[in-house]
Every structure is written in C-alpha cells, then in structure tokens.
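Morning!

This is the sequence you dropped in the shared folder:
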Amino acid sequence: MYLALRVRKEKAEKLRRKVIRLKVIDKSRRIIVNQGYVEIPVLKKVELEDAEIIEQASPVFAKPRFNFDYVKEKLSDLLSKEELKKFRGGWELIGDILIVNLPDLQKDKKREVGKRLKSLFPKVKTVVSRKAIRDEFRKPEVEIIYGSETITVHKENYCFFKIDVSKLMFCAGNIEERRRMAFISNRNEVVIDMFAGIGQFTIPLAKHSKPKKVIAIEKNPVAFGYLKENIALNELDNVNAILGDCRKVTPERIADRVIMGYFFTPERFLAKAINAIKKHGVIHYHDLAKKDEIEAKEKKLKEVKEIKEIEHRIVKSYAPRVYHVVFDLKVER
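The structure's back. Tokens below.
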C-alpha cells in the first residue's frame, strides 16, 4: 500500500514543506502531477488541511543516478571483458560506504577500481569489496579498496543506524519491508524482535509506531553493542535490548506481535515465537523459498494448531530462483 497526499497544484509547495517538517515524506517515491493535482508520497496516514489521503495505483519510484551497467561501462578501460562478466551483484550504499562484489584482481587494479568508483560516488568515503559471509552471525569478509573507515551511520526513513560493515551485515534491499514494519504496530502493543541485529526492524517500528514496548533480542555481542548505540542515537525510550539466544531468553505470553527476521531454518524458532504471543497476535515469519515452494510452506505452517490465518509476500530475490518471503501468521491459543 503506497499512500500519498493529493492536493491542488497551487497549494502543493506549502504542503510539501509541512510534510517534510513532520518527517513523513516517503523519499523512495517521486512527487507526481496528475490532472491538476499533486501527489506527495507519505510513509503513513496523516490528516492535513486541503489534502486528501489516497492509495497510489501507479507510484513512481525514485531511481538511482545511474544503473549497474553504467558503472561497469565506466570501468571498461580498467577491467577486461572476462573480469567485467564476473563483476556481478550490483552495489549497496550503506551510509558513506560503497559495497561491491569484485572478482579476483591484482592489488594495484583493485586500487584503481576503488578510485574510479569513488569518482562516480563523490559522497563515498570508503569502498569495500565483499568476498563472503561467514559463521552463524553472518560476519562479512570484506577488503577495503579505497579509504580506510568501515564504521558509518546509515540514514533511512528518518532513522539512524550505526554499523561497522566489516563486522556486520545490513541489507539495503529490504528497505520496503522495513518501511512497512515501521508503521504496522500501535501504542497499545508489546512487540518482540527475536533477531534484532543492529535494530533494522526494531528502530523504525519503535520510532514511528511508538508501541508500548519493543523487546529486542540479539545473540551476537558485536551487533548487540550497535543495537544499544542505535537505540540511544534515535533517542528511544520504549526499547528493552536483551543479549542472548532467543530460544532461551524470549519472554512468554506477553507479546501482541513477534518479528522473526532470520530466514535460515526459521522453523526451529517458531514454537518459541508462538509461546511469546498472548491469547492472540501476529508473527512475521521470514523464510527463503522458490516460487513453487511457497504454497507448500504455507500449507505446512497451517498445520500448526495455533496459526489461524496466513498471508505472505515476496520481499526480494535472494539468489537465482530463490526468494526472501515473509509470512504474516495470525495466532490464537
């Protein structure tokens, strides 16, 4: 659901400035003009004078300044055709750090590529090449090819996330799911985030939905340290951070909503999530699946007696023919 404020053109600029002051403008979509009216994209429902809240049928999304093919073209004098073929996966911009997936190159050539990428992204201070993701904490293996600093502050939907990209993962591709989750709760709810990481779901939900309490659980001590920093950085007083394994420290029967944002064999943690719910509530269950497997996974979840209703959506492509899927599970005891 993509919300926008619809207003006559002559009143649009005044409204745009007000929406920016209220910090509800959706920067991932463009402002569009339609038959004498202007549609200003917003993150949540707001009632403002002279404006009508609508659902956009055809939102126009903001586009990056250039695409990955353009970047590869600008590197064509540095890399051979074979090397360019192996340069895959696009890029991620986390704060002022650019993350790419370079093929194996000689050290001098990597430095030249780093300098060229820096020239294409002037605001970038560091360029790193990600080689692999290791261990249960998904620690990235990265190589700095320009600059030196790997700690940055990433800004998204009026939230701030401090992170060290050499030690922790932050997936920029999940922005739409984080935006959705930011406004899914309300002031009466208690929410448990069983795999909180640095706060990628906890922070926007606590900041924008303002629930009674968010209990954020994280097992990785490094991620937990940044989670605590990010709670302070965003000036939140409704988040209780807990260091530990969610299978051991998740409280029981107190939550209206549970976030299970870990998609590697999530079924191992489902019983604990169900036990955390009060008499009824919602679990956001993340998983990986091929498209022809989604129906079977949904059917398997329906076999759990406490799960009464299921809706699902595809978040993004994760690997060839494999998708990151979220199942919203309505639970009743």
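Headline: The mean pLDDT is 91.

More detail when I'm at my desk.
O.
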